[in-house]
Structure formats: C-alpha cells, structure tokens
Amino acid sequence: MKSPPFEYARAASIDEACELLSQHGEAAKIIAGGQSLVPMMAFRLLRPSWLIDINEIAALKFVAFETDAVRMGACARQCVVARDDALAARVPLLRQALAFVGHAQTRNRGTIGGSLVHADPSAELPLVAQILDARMVLRAKLGTRTLPASAFFAGPMMTNLQPDECLEEIHWPVWRERRTGSAFTEISRRHGDFAMAAAAAQIAIDEDGHCARVTFGVGGASPTPIAFPELAQSLVGHRVDKANARAVAQEAAAALEPDSDIHASAAYRRHLAGVLMTRVLQQAYDTARAVQ
Amino acid sequence: MSEVLYSIAVEVNGAQRAGHVTARTSLVDWLREHLHLTGTHIGCEHGICGACSVMLDGEPVRSCLMYAVQADGHRITTVEGLAQPDGSLSILQDSFCETHGLQCGYCTPGMLIAAQALLDANPRPTEAEIRDAIGGNLCRCTGYQQIVDAIALAARRIAEGAT
Amino acid sequence: MSTSHAKSPYGYRYIGAHRRTKEDPRFVTGRGRYAADIALPGLKHVALVASPHASARILSIRTDAARALPGVRYLLTGEEFCAATDSLPIGVDAPKVTRWALARDQVRYAGEWIAAVVADSRALAEDAAELIEVEYAPLPHVTDPEQAMEDGSPLVHLAHGSNVILHRNFVWGPVEEEFAKAEHQISFRAIWNRNATVPIETFAVVAQWNPGTEILDIWASIQMPKYPDQTARALRLPGNAVRVHYDVDVGGSYGVKRGLKHTVLVGYLAKRLGLPVRLIEDRLENMRGGDMHGPERTFDMTAAFDGDGTIRALKIKAVDNVGAYAGRAPFQLGKPVGAICGSYRIGAIAYEPVSVLTNKTPQEAVRGFGQSPTNFALERTMDRVAQFLNMDRIALRQKNLIRKDEFPYTIPSGSTYDSGDYHTVLDKALAAIDYPALVRRRDEARRAGLLAGIGISTCLEPSGGNSAFEPLLNPKNETTTWMDSCLVRVDLSGAITGIMGTSSSGQGHETLVSTIVGEILERDPAQIRVIHADSLNALPSNSPVGSRMAIMLGGAAAGAARQIKDTLIAIAAHNFECAKEDVDYRDGNVSLKGVPEKVMRWDQLVEIAHRKFHQLPPNLEPGLQAKFVWEVPTGGGLPTPDGRIHIYPCYAFETHIVYVEIDPETAAPAIKQYVCGHDCGVMINPDIVHGMTYGGIAHGIGAALYEEFTYDDNGQLTSGTFMDYLIPSALEVPPISIVDHCTPSPLTTFGQKGSGEAGYLGAPAAVANAVNDALAPLGVEVNALPISHLAIWETLSKATRDGK
Asked: Cβ A1–C668 below 8 Å, yes or no?
C-alpha cells in the first residue's frame, strides 16, 4: 500500500501555502497531521500531484484567548489542545470530545483543523464545531473569508473549502455564562473507532436552574454533524430532566436518516442518536447545576 | 521520467542521518530500507495497528502515516535507540523480559515506544492509563496482560530508583 | 494475572520455574529477523493484481502500459505460471479442485490474484499493477453455502461437478436408541461466522535461485508442515533443491501463515528471472487474497437428555463455507472429531461434516483447527439444556463432566483422553473469581437496570498433533506419521547446542528446548543455545501445529539429552573401570558411587568424547551429539471402517468464567471480569504458557464480539482493512486471571500437555454464554458470533416487540 507518486513542498508560511495552492489547483492537497490523508493515499483513493506540508508553519499552531472566543491555528495539535487546561476551562467540549478521538499517537500528530477539513460525518471535532457554530477562517491567495460551521460542512467528507483555500484559523465561541456545563459521548465498537453515533451538548443555566442557552447535536447519523437549534431553544426557560431531555432527543432523532453499514443499521444509529442526545443533555445540565 | 528526490537530514537515535528520498517514501520505509533500522515494523500501512510507532521529537507517532520528507529537521527515536548508552537494556526493556511481555516480538518495538513515552510523561501510571497508552498498539500474541505487567513493573522499578 | 514461582512447583530444577525466555532479549532491542528484514543484493519486489469480481471469466490481460514503466522487470500471468508449475495439493478427495497462485481463464473470488508484477521497488510494482488492463466477463456467483448446495447453484469448480468437497455421516455409539430413551430433546442452530487470527505481520517470502548450486533458498514467515516438500513439488523440483531457512522469526501465525501459493509464485519468479524476489503482502492483499480466513461454520445441534441433566446423545451437523479453493482447511471439520463430545460423558454422537465451496476467499488453518467453533456449539448446547431444565449451568456441567477416576477415557469417536481432573479445575476457577460474590454482583447490576450475565465454558484443548483426521476424512490419504525431532550437541568447549527443524512464531521453542535439555543434563539452560536448522539439514519435523511442540519437540529434546547423559555416564564408567550402575551423575559431572572425590568433570568427559579416542568406550561414536526422532504417542493408526480413530494424544482442559455487562439502551457490551482455570499438565515454562493463554483469550474475545470477514451481495469483502476488521486492543481485552492446575499426561516425558491453543478454545463459548445469560431475563438469545453491538440491539428489539 505505497502511495502513488507526488511532489512535495514544505510551506514556510500560510502565504506560501496559498500561493502553491493557487498554482497547482485541484492537483494539490494540503497535508497537516496526515492521520486521515495518508491512509487515503495508501489506499490510492486520493492521488494529488502535490502535497503542500503546513506542519512547520508556527503561525498556524497558536491558541489565543479572546473575550468571546478562543482563536486557534488550524495546525494546533490535538494532543496540545487536549492538555491545555486554560482552553478546557473556556471551551470544555474540545477536551471532552478529544478523549474519543483516535489514540494517543494519532492525537500527537493529528491537528484540529485537519479533522475539520476531513469532515468525516462521524468525527468528533466537526460535531463540536457544528453545535458551537465555530467559525472557520479560510485563506486563499486572493483573500480571506470566514464561514460558520453550518456553512462549512457540506456533506460526507465534503466541505465548502475551495481548492485554492486553506483553513487558517478556527474561532471557538466561549460561553461567558457563569453556570455552563457540557457533555460529549459516543458509541463505537472499540475505543478510538469511528463513532456509530456521537452526541454533544452545552447548556448555560440561570441562577434558578432554568436553561438560558442550549445547544446540542449528533454526529455519525447524517451526512454532516447536525445541530438542532430550534429544539434546543425549546428547552430555554425550563429545567432539564430525564423526561424533557428524552422528548427533545427523540424528536431530534426522528428527523434523522442515517446510513447503514456493517457495524450499525440505520435503525440502530437512529436509536443510538436518541439515547446519546438524551444523555448529553442531562449531563450538560447536571454539570451546569453543579457550578456554585 | 523518474521521481524527484528530496534531500533530508534527520536526527535518528541521536545521530544525524542524511537521505535522498522520493516524496512518497514513508518514514517507516526510509528507516527500514534506507537506514536498515529494521526494528520498526509494518503491520497495516493505514495507521491502525501501531507496529510502526516511533518517537517524533519525543512523542510517539505512526511512522507509516508520515513521509520521510516530513521528518526533515526533526528528531526520531526508534526501538534501536531505547537501550542505555552502554548498550544494556533500559528498565522498560528489561521489564518486558522479566514479565514475558511479548511472544513473536512483532508489535513489541511499537509497544516499547508507546510505553516509554508514557513513563516519560507519567512515571506513576494507573493500569487504566497504561492500557490507554498502548490502546493504539495491537497485539495478537499476548492478550496484553503481560505487557501491562511489564510497564507497571518498569514504573515501580523506576520509582524505586533502579538503574 | 497469574502466578509463576522462582522455584518449580513440580520439584524440577528448571522445568516449571519462572525463567526468562531466550527469545525476548532480541525482540526488545529490535533485533528480530523477520522475512521482510532479509536484505539481498539486487532484490526485486512483487505486487499483485487482484480480481474485483467474485466469479468471472478472464477474457484478456493487457500489460503494455505496465511493461513500459521504468523499473518494471517482469509481468507474470496465469497463462505462463499455471503451465510451468503444478497445482497446490488439496487434502480431501477432490482432485479436480485445483489451485494456483494466479488464476488462469477464470477467477473464483474477489481478491484472487491474476497477475504479478516484479519491479525495482514495491511502490513501482504497485504503479505498474494499476496499469494492467483486465477484461472480465462476470459470471453468477454464490457466497452462501446452503445456496451453493442447491441444484442449479453456480459451480465454483465446474470439473468437480458440485460445490460439496466433503460430506460424511458418522454415527458413533447407539445414537437412535439413546434418542428414543431420552426424556427430552432440544434443537437449535449455532453460527460461527468467518474470522481468523490475523497476525500483525502479513505473509512475507523471499526466494533466491542459485544456478551454480541449483538450490532455491527461501526465507518466509511460515508455520506449515511439509512446506519445503510441497513447494518443491509444485515447482517441479526435487525436494533437495529447496532450502527453507527456519531461522526466520515469524511475526505471529496461530495457524494461518501457510503461504504456499505465495512461495511457489515467488520461487518461480526467482528462478525465471535469476534475481532474488520478495513478496510482502500488504494488508489489502492479505485480507482478501492471502487465503488466510478461518472457519465459517453453521452447527445444527440436537441434544437428547433426561430430566436429571444426563446428556445421552448429540446430533451435530456442521456445514463449513471453505471458500473458492481448499488446501488443508476442510480438515478443520475433522480435528474436532477427537473431542466431539467435549469434556462430557456423552455415549452416542452423530456427526455430519460438510465442506462447501463458494466464491469467497479460501480458508486456511486457524488456531485450534476447528475445535473452538465446535466448543462454542457444544457449550451453547449445555447452556440451553440447563435453561430447558431450569437447572444451574454449573451443576449441569458438573454432572456431565468426565470424572477424574474415569481416565483414560475413550470417547465414542475413538480418541482416548489421557488424563484430567475437570471438576477440580472448575472448582478452582469458581473459587478464584469468588463465584457467589460474582452472582451477587450480577444481580445488583441487574437491579440497577443493567443487563448483566455470567458465562461459563468447560472445554478441551486436544494437543499433540496426531492428525489422524486426515485418513478419516480422506481414505485415499494414509498419512499416519506425525513426528518431530531434536539434535543436541556438546562441542569441544563444552557448550551445548540444541537444533530444531522448524520455525517459531512466538511460542518460545528455544526456551522450551534449552530448559528441557538443561533439566536432563543438569546444566544451566541460559548457557544452552538453540538454533533452527534449514530444510536441507533439518531432522524431520511436522512444524508447530496442533499444540504439539511442548510434547513432540520437548520429548525429542529430552530423548536426545538423555542419550548425551548416557554417553557421559558410559565414558566415566569406562574410565573408572566400573559398571554404569556404580556411578552418580550430578550437574554434568560423574563420580564413583560412595567415592565422591573420584569424579570426572564435564570438561574432562567432553574432551574425551572429542579428542581422546583412546579413552572412549568401544562402540561409541566420536564427538558428543545425539539425535532423537519420534512419532507422536498413540500415532500410527488408521480409522476403523465405522470411522473410529484415536486422534490427538493429550487433552488439556480449560474453564472460563466471564462476567459481562450490557448497557440496555446502547446495547454496548463490556467484559468486566475474566478468570480462566487451566490444566495443561506440567508447564515447562509457566510464563510462556500463561502468555499463550492470555493471547488465546484475546483471540477468543475478538471472535466472540468483534471480528468478522463480512461480504456483500456482490461477493465483495467489506471488512478488508483494520478499520472494519476489528482486532481487540488493550482497552477491549480486560485484565485476566489464570489459575493453574496440573494433571500430568501419562504419555509424555514430563507429563506436559500442549498449550499453544489455550484460551482460544474456550473463550468464545464463555463470552457467548455470558451475553446470553445477560439477555436471558428478557427471554431472548443470540447464537451467532460475533455478537456485535448491532446484534445485541436487534435481539433486544425483538424482546421489546415480543412484549418481553
């Protein structure tokens, strides 16, 4: 399973990367951590003529805290992000999701941006981006634009990233409500495997324990990760208990049309989606309640 | 038309090594075929089994998922670099021998890399942390029990100040 | 965890004591020498072109574009290869089912190799392989064995005339009478879906032809009896033109490393091109074209029993889907005949094995050679009988287990179990897991809303490798020799070397031989070197299969060492001018009885043997070496006309007790506790035995919950990578405790039984029984492996639909 032949360029800056992308067009691909890309090359499912390596661009590895967001370079390593306590305090879902992403070795090399661009429908980080509505900063030779996650993910393994664009930064929204809780869970056949279904939720509550802000969603059960803003809104003003968590989760799950594969049928995925969304809603709420 | 060759300079097990490789030459193939460091093994070539694990700048990675050109300017440690400077077995390697934490030896180099990285970062791992650290290294011979025992033994011996 | 002590529990000096192995040091330093590590000047590399169709005629193969690529050395298709080499042998009587490494005219499974490219690098060979254009005319295919047996089914091998290559009906004992007398009977189907032991190292082979000596040298990742002979035969070479180097480290095999087709292919290319040639299967080639799949078997079980739990008789029909070609794999229906009633006293058994061809990847030998699927079916039967009678599953087993005082015990199919104390091992395991506490744990988990279950299995591991199932299943095959050997030398410096004549894949044979030789000669095993001969200078061996090496290689090493000891005694007695009975042998030194200061030391005796012919007793050959070649105990027999024969000589026993919890909402199973009680007689090296047992259990957990070669309706393998073929990691395999017992075998040198297949033979049964115990309160069951999350959920959904 040797890769097909290609030429290699190591970009020293994001500008250089974009220059190369514009030169080579669809024949070029960015390589970051390579944990998803290189297996595709080994299977000869991808045959770029050029690989543009962005691993050495220091400017893509930063993590910066702003008032309402965490700005993160696309090449921030998954292991570095997972270890960052200050980051976990601001965007707790990232650490929670990363616990399910692959294994220690893949997280040592894999990048946050790489997982988002790869856009596997069952991947953990795209789900977090979707429900937090993270913003993707896309850089091309001719300029920069920003897409919210909901406009970024287009389908299974597909995003609206153009062939001459490179993901440069991700802006993760920070919730400033004092009593905020989040939860992430998934079911896979083995640890670290692709999720058969994954669910994530983040809830902020007021001093009386009523939901002030809610977001939740599911991955692995549709062409892209899905957030349910309207159903989430229906919980605002209420406390969350098993009954209403389940009701909301079941309504969300009923709308899904998951795929079948050798590991899970559509019916099982839909069932899991409902169960897991119920659980994360409860867990996120309970975590928020526990904040004194 | 033949493929372009790229010059690389990589520190491997403490020594500077130079190479001229096609871009598509994987790091594991370069280590094995060009440097003749055959201790690192290939099991799947798609990043699941972990037999190819090496340390990149001190952290374990899958060398089948990196191209050798990407290692230019970086530091690689393979199983051949784990022994003590005088060539004697490290505490970890010796512990694997004490508990018989291997049989066919094929996954062993990858296990040692993963385990050494764990002990470097966390000298007192719990059993759950040990299993998590080797969770990305598949073994078909041992059922993992004696491997876990070996790593736990090494941690105890290191804590006791053994050499 | 398990225990091994610094001091042998059997009273030996070295045997049974905790001792480090000889093999481990080279592997922990990355100095193993696997087939892929063999570097030869001018080495060329092979990549394969595989059929995308499950069944098709090959209309044309165009190689021009591939040929034009720089670095491409040769392109080989079936047209040339199949004319120049002979078909690979088939074990059962189906001579028209021929097989070559490359298809000619017709492909019979998706993944079958149709062309080989030789190039300067593997990458270039793959580039060229992609440029080969093949025109196919797809044909109807069949993947289900029941459909394959129907009239009108597509035929996989037209010339054979049907898709059935083996179909027998054995009746041992008064089956119909026992069924008539029995108070009850139950029938059900148990399914063992296709999986294999899938080693982390794929099959690799390097071949080099030397025209000057006319020898074909082969280095391969091999575990196979008669490999050099069959390679030579297929290449139309005399046996002594093939030299297999057994000193290659094999990265795990557990049965499947039988790359005969790869070897004939590479051997042919090496000879044809005059260049050394290497094939390392990549994982894609390995999974669907490496022909290393294991049994895929449906058991229809009927048990006849009484209300008190006495099992009177069994009827077993086993239909196995062997794939598109067959070598020895169909014999995996025959080996279980040697333990067809498991560990139970069942006086009458009917067994109907059927081996069916379909358009799937061919099978190969897998650990246990069919015994694990059979044990799974037997153990599910026991649990279902218990359930029917509302009887405790342990009590049912205790009632039917053969008792210690009944050994040696001859089962209806003709094998005699040598020794055992099944009840004690079961008791030990129950005590080790604290069974009453485990039941309380399970019941508490159930009250908390979980599904929770305890699974038990009490299974046999036949060992020793007397493969008498060959003549049983194929009367035209009268093979009854199952031998092994060892040569032991003491050189002029006094150093001891043992020489074994086959390869190793992690079983610790070097440690086995050095420990035994050291024990007998009373010399430190750490100083005894063990090497692997090559096939030209090796004594006869039948390779490590059937859990045979502790018995056979161990026995041979002991035999050779005893001869050396006798020689040393004879030399001393001759020089003391006394009778052999009048001397004492201790630590390699020999002294006159009662006069300890009159001693001849090891070095002196060695020197006499090598250099001082004038001091050598008459009729002793010079030097100090001994060879020992022997036949398996109980071997040499042919089956009776009614199909009875003694198969393996020794029977190890294992009991597994497993506790599983299942989240009823997600259907996710988790193994929470695992104890294995194990009795393989005397353990030569306990750490090696424990290691193999843990590994076998991990294989068994994989088979029970995770691993399957799945196929779609187009005959395509849909789990052909490690993303979908799920091998358990350290996070899926729980901590395991092994508790040992020792019932020595009366047939072997030290009482050792084999243990290479330990753990694997009883684990799937116990895990399946645990899951079923968890589901039992809902009145549903699952009898097909692997029991995936999906299978559990669908079973639970059935319970909900049925209003349970």
From this structure: no
